[in-house]
Amino acid sequence: MTNEALENAVREASGRWIAAFNAQDAAGCAACYEPDAVMNAAPLGTFQGREQIEAFWAQLHADGYRDVEYIEPTLEVIDDSTAIVRSKWRMNKAHGVITNERWVLQDDGTALLREDDFEVQG
After folding, report:
1. Around Cβ 64, how many Cβ atoms within 10 Å?
2. Beta strands in 1-122 (DSSP E)
3. Model confidence pLDDT, tens digit, residues 14-27
4. How far lies 61's CA from each of 12, 17, 25, 86, in Å?
5. Structural domains of the chain in order of their starting residue, each with its CATH number
6. pTM above the 0.85 mark?
């Protein structure tokens, strides 16, 4: 796969995740992760697998968090099937930084998150 095709798959997948979050769709958020993905949400904890990740996003939505926006995102291709997204982010009740969204190309040409490392700063 070309870098351009990988970048397009990651941008599309990232857009799906943002749209799911902003629609308050925790299952849609979790579907953007590989089944055994790991999410490190500093300082809130580490969550492994879609079930724990979905529960995290569902609780965040229940607590009134919404309207996430990425600020100055960057996308770095690591190899033929992996790219990293980094970005500042903000939403209605918090802001922070994404240090490592590791998107991995799947057999069907879509990208899913294998690792998601972000920090809530306020």
Report:
1. 9
2. 33-42, 45-48, 69-79, 82-90, 95-105, 111-120
3. 999 999 999 999 99
4. 23, 14, 8, 23
5. 3-120 (3.10.450.50)
6. yes
